[in-house]
């Protein structure tokens, strides 16, 4: 009996112990906003890996060991909650919305996604990053702000197009611009089709009509999962521009005024009249030549064409609404004069964004903008009518005025002072863009939306030269229109089933555009007082070209996530384009991607202070480039030929029914996390392969054609990107935040048409000094290597192909010596606030790229007497032992010293203090007393203030005068340097 009692006691003890160790707690988790249950909430015993998730009805059941004190409840979009375990076995919890997380969404093609759950690789630049910056166009706001985006201002000319590439670009010789989409409308952006050349290769900026003040955010779509939804236009990347919207509540009025001034960041020093006369005299005497009698006059042309630039900008907007109607109304007026004589730009723009909820089922909206540009243009570079080019080259004893005090003709290097004073070089443009939509909620989770968009662009140019420059005078007038309409219809479905969430998109779009180019040109005017081309006595040209194209698209996307841990996305697009041959009208583009939210796994210790929100993603897909011009697949003949005295036609374009888009396949692997609860880090590796690149293939002349367009080239871009956003110090009165990004890219040409160089490598010419070469960058510099001045002989020396020294190099001695694209580029921003004061410093940088300064072939031309020269030539060799810049005056190399070589190729790496901003916001308590102002901030900004560059670089390293060209990058012929700008402003909120 005693043993039986002992046994029963032992059993009861262990049973009670087991019960104490295995307590079960149940409950329901709901939202504090709408009281509805939340499925998928993580419920975990604090400090352990024991846990579960709520079911479709928000219910949970979890076994907790004895001694457990608390339960942790967490879910994306809600604030985490820690609840004490009481004696009750039922614990119901209501979670509060995390407004910061819920608002942290990213704009993607045809929609939005949660940043935490997206598998796409994007970079978003919000309005706060470029607020109050004195920028002309949206592209400038991207510089140094997004990893993998390399943006180079082509020059300091107002209205010039920037060179922007995303992950190295996706084309070799076809157009390389990204696709710009504003509020769902893909923009016309072929800047080179809208204007006559002004001397340089850089086209008119196609986004100059868009006011940066109206932009809420810009999202750069980079990997295949992001761009495949845009199919045949996504290979060069896509930039989604979202404009500002209204919000429920009191109407808010905001006004901003800026006033600033500018000057060039760098100006080359040329010889004065006295220095030039003395140099030429010494040079001619050293070579036993007759010294002419030089004029005794003197004029500083550089001072004449450079002035203090000025800018005034006013922004005014109002936004507000209620639960049914929301609106945004904005307007901008800016008046800017560049630091170069004759370059001015005025812009007037307005925007209306309206959303109205007709009923619980129907919503309508309108996004519409209208703008007008009035611009005084100038020659940009490689043009003796360009102010700065002419100022550098003009002989310093030549003056703009003759003995009678009137303007005089200065010969081949034009009198640019007279041009600015007497000529007309105007560009007017009007642009209206927008879309109207209707959205119908069919059933919960299922929405139908139809959009109708337009982009109507009209450009007028008026040019007039007086008799002084062209005997009889000369004029032209052009009128360009590029009008597009687009219809997009989409069906969206979103549904959550327990731990499963799906989102599906199906869509159809059709767009058509018509480009019209008209030009009239004439010469011979009775008087300079007649400004219009219609007054010309001799017509030269009267032409009209019309180009039309259309694009039909079917697209879809499917997103799935399981338990907020495992993510999947697939997209497909089928495009039909009129640009391509009848055998290749349609093409298919796709992408698949997956993600793993490691931090949502049960095994992940959510209490650790090292890493949170840990996510791994991978994607692969394809996209295309359809920007190959118009009607390139047609077989055409050219008129105007003479055959045995009879009018004839000659073959012009080889027919190619198989002509198609270039296609880029891209692999992307990404890892993102929040470290130490303060640092957001994202790392991505990518590998892009472009096939079917559109190239010009040489033909035997016996065919009657010189060449033909074919899809034959292959190219690879491979690299990685790092983005870091850090809350360094967040205190009551003081905060310090840092944003850093860097992108590494290596571009390699894989295959080109047969066109071997001396070493048997196929190549494609970009310029006289730059080419795409198989196995190397598409922007490889191919030059003779300059070796310097021999201290003993005073001769300039170069290297032969085998590396031996020579004073008489040949074209066959050229080798690959550098590249125009950088090894890496990026930016870093530090933002500080102390009470009501704020300070921000933004640096951008580029490393590993070279810049070829073609103008140095003139500025350093030792022997010519037709142009002015750099003061550096005064440092010429005089005696053995001299380490001189230039050869001896009578050196046998004096006439070849300026030839194209690495002497003009300089290291273009730099770091620049791009923007420095300081401001003060008046206390709200003080403003409330006025009963008028809700906010008031005064600020100062400086742009391009300070630059670190190679000590031997001459001028501004941030230059690429060929604009959006793919094959020519990092070249300049006296292109204008960037403007150093100082701006003062005030923000007022009512």
Automatic annotation (TrEMBL):
Its main location: membrane. Residues 118-238 form the TonB-dependent receptor plug domain. Residues 385-846 form the TonB-dependent receptor-like beta-barrel domain. GO terms for cellular component: cell outer membrane. The keyword RNA-binding does not apply. It is a multi-pass membrane protein. Residues 1-20 form the signal peptide. It comes from the Bacteria. Coiled coil: none annotated. It is found in: Cell outer membrane. Belongs to the TonB-dependent receptor family. This is TonB-dependent receptor. It comes from Pedobacter sp. KACC 23697. The lineage of its organism: Bacteria, Pseudomonadati, Bacteroidota, Sphingobacteriia, Sphingobacteriales.
């Amino acid at each position: 009996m005693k043993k039986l009692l002992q046994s029963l006691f032992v059993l009861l003890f262990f049973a009670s112990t087991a019960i104490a160790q295995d307590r079960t707690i149940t409950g329901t988790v709901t939202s504090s906003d709408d009281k509805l249950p939340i499925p998928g909430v993580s419920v975990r015993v604090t400090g352990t890996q024991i846990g579960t998730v709520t079911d479709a009805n928000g219910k949970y059941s979890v076994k907790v060991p004895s001694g457990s004190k608390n339960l942790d409840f967490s879910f994306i979009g809600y604030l985490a909650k820690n609840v004490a375990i009481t004696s009750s076995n039922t614990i119901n919890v209501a979670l509060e919305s995390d407004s910061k997380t819920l608002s942290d969404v990213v704009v993607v093609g045809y929609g939005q996604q949660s940043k935490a759950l997206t598998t796409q690789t994007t970079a978003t630049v919000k309005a706060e990053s470029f607020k109050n910056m004195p920028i002309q166009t949206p592209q400038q706001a991207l510089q140094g702000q997004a990893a993998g985006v390399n943006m180079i201002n082509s020059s300091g000319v107002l209205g010039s197009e920037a060179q922007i590439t995303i992950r190295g670009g996706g084309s070799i010789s076809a157009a390389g611009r990204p696709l710009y989409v504003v509020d769902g409308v893909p923009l016309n952006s072929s800047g080179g089709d809208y204007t006559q050349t002004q001397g340089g290769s850089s086209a008119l900026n196609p986004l100059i009509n868009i006011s940066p003040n109206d932009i809420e955010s810009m999202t750069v779509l980079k990997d295949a999962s992001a761009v495949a939804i845009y199919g045949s236009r996504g290979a060069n990347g896509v930039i989604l521009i979202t404009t500002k919207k209204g919000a429920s509540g009191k109407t808010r009025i905001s006004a901003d005024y800026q006033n600033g001034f500018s000057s060039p960041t760098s100006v080359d020093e040329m010889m004065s009249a006295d220095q030039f006369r003395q140099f030429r005299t010494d040079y001619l005497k050293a070579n036993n030549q007759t010294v002419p009698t030089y004029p005794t006059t003197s004029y500083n042309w550089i001072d004449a064409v450079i002035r203090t630039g000025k800018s005034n900008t006013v922004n005014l907007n109002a936004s507000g609404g209620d639960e049914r109607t929301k609106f945004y109304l904005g307007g901008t007026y800016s008046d800017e004069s560049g630091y170069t004589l004759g370059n001015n730009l005025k812009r007037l723009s307005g925007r209306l964004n309206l959303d109205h909820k007709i009923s619980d089922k129907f919503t309508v909206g309108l996004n519409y903008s209208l703008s007008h540009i009035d611009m005084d243009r100038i020659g940009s570079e490689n043009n003796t009518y360009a102010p700065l080019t002419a100022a550098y080259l003009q002989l310093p004893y030549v003056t703009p005025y003759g003995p009678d005090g009137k303007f005089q003709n200065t010969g081949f290097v034009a009198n640019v002072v007279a041009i600015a004073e007497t000529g007309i070089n105007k560009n007017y443009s009007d642009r209206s863009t927008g879309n109207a939509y209707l959205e119908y909620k069919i059933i919960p989770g299922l929405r139908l939306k139809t959009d109708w968009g337009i982009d109507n662009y009209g450009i007028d140019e008026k040019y007039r030269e007086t008799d002084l420059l062209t005997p009889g005078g000369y004029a032209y007038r052009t009128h360009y229109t590029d009008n597009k309409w687009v219809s997009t219809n989409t069906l969206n479905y979103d549904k959550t089933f327990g731990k499963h969430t799906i989102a599906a998109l199906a869509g159809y779009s059709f767009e058509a555009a018509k480009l019209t180019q008209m030009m009239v040109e004439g010469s011979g005017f009775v008087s300079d007082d007649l400004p219009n081309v219609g007054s010309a006595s001799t017509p030269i040209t009267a032409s009209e070209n019309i180009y039309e194209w259309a694009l039909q698209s079917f697209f879809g996307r499917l997103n799935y996530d399981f338990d907020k841990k495992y993510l999947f996305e697939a997209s497909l697009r089928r495009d039909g384009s009129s640009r391509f041959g009848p055998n290749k009208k349609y093409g298919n583009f796709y992408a698949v991607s997956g993600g793993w939210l490691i931090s949502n796994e049960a095994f992940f210790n959510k209490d650790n202070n090292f890493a949170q929100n840990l996510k791994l993603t991978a994607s692969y897909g394809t996209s295309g480039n359809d920007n190959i011009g118009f009607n390139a697949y047609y077989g055409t003949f050219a008129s105007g030929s003479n055959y045995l005295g009879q009018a004839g036609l000659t073959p012009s374009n080889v027919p190619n029914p198989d002509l198609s888009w270039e296609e880029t396949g891209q692999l992307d692997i990404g890892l993102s996390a929040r470290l130490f609860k303060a640092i957001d880090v994202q790392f991505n590796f990518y590998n892009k392969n472009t096939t079917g690149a559109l190239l010009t293939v040489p033909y035997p002349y016996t065919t009657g054609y010189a060449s033909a367009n074919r899809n034959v080239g292959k190219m690879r871009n491979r690299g990685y990107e790092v983005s870091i956003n850090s809350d360094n110090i967040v205190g009551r009165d003081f905060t310090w935040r840092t944003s850093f990004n860097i992108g590494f890219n290596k571009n390699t040409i894989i295959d080109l048409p047969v066109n071997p160089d001396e070493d048997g490598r196929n190549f494609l010419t970009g310029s006289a000094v730059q080419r795409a070469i198989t196995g190397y960058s598409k922007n490889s510099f191919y030059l003779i290597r300059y070796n310097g001045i021999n201290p003993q002989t005073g001769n300039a020396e170069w290297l032969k192909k085998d590396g031996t020294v020579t004073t008489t190099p040949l074209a066959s001695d050229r080798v690959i010596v550098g590249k125009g694209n950088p090894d890496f580029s990026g930016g870093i921003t530090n933002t500080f606030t102390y009470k009501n004061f704020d300070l921000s410093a933004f640096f951008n940088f580029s490393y590993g790229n070279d810049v070829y300064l073609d103008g140095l072939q003139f500025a350093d031309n030792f022997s010519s007497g037709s142009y002015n020269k750099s003061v550096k030539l005064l440092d010429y060799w005089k005696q053995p032992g001299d380490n001189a810049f230039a050869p001896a005056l009578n050196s046998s190399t004096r006439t070849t010293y300026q030839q194209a070589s690495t002497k003009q190729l300089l290291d273009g790496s730099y770091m620049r203090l791009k923007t420095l901003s300081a401001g003060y916001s008046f206390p709200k308590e003080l403003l409330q007393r006025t009963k008028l102002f809700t906010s008031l901030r005064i600020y100062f900004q400086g742009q391009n203030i300070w630059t670190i560059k190679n000590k031997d670089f001459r001028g501004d390293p941030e230059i690429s005068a060929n604009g959006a060209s793919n094959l020519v990058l990092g070249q300049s012929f006296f292109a204008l340097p960037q403007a150093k700008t100082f701006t003062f402003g005030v923000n007022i909120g009512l």
